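Thread: quick sanity check before group meeting

JM: Hey all, I'm pulling together slides for Thursday and realized we never actually wrote out the predicted structure for the chain we discussed last week. Dropping the sequence here so it's in one place. If anyone has concerns about the input, flag it before I start.
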Amino acid sequence: MKQPISFLLILPLVSACSSMYNLQNSVPYSPRRTLDPPAHRVAVASSYDVLKESYRDKKENQFLLLIDGALQSMKTQVERNSDVEVKIQRGRAVVPSKEDSCFSAIIAMNEADYLVLLDSFKVFFDQTEVVVTKTDDGKSREAFYDIVSFVNYRLVGKSGSSESFPTSVRKFHSSRNVVSGLLAAGPDIVANHSDAVEIVELNVKEFLRNFFPGKDERVRPVYTSKDFANLSAHLKSGDLSAAVKDCESQTTNADRKIAAMAYYNLAVLAEHMGAYEKVRGFLSDSQRMHATPLASQMEEDYL
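JM (edit): ok, ran it. Output follows.
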């Protein structure tokens, strides 16, 4: 499924004329590729030796925790979204990175179909921009930083086949005033441990999209204007059946814009309730009645 444009970009187009209520929905996606042969059990381990990096103690401990967290995240995400079992090979840098016999032994020991190795593991802050502003005293400089996670995953099969998947994920983190952009020190990765954990989990998810199904989280606004006057109350109370009935009653509204809103709302409610097979039809009916940015955005997840 394609990643949709952010609804924040189009919300101003609808909020001026309509009241909205946000629902937190999950959208399933299919893997980009198929494992051949299929996987029933996968072993996961790290061959990245943190101790060789000569980090100071706090950073060394943090990276050991982050790697353990990455392995656990793989297990949690795969088992939550598929029938595949994941076995974690515990230990610190237990797997020599270039010994095929060791890979085969781990696969055999865990009766696994594949082994996923973390070959390389980095989490850091990257300065992306320095904005210089004229002030009464001269100039001020504001540096902007992304937090970045880079992991090289290696997928090893029973047959000895091996393929690498370098995976990088970044997101904006923060900005700070600096004296010099070139000499400015970024945020401390140890002091921002929770953000490091989050970016590593996103990295794991990005890798797993290659071979395993999963779910993305979406915030879907629904229309709650006067034609859907009771909808907010139904949603707040959790009465989804009543919410559906309210929207269904407006699908025959003589005003095609209102009917389009009703069908769009039904699409969001169907997604919220896990009735994914109904979503595309409701969106098609909504667009047939009157094309709206929100319906177009949601359709991107169902192409």
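AS: nice. The chain is about 40% helix and 30% strand. Strands lie at 20-29, 41-46, 85-88, 114-135, 138-157, 162-178, 214-223.
JM: adding both to the slides.
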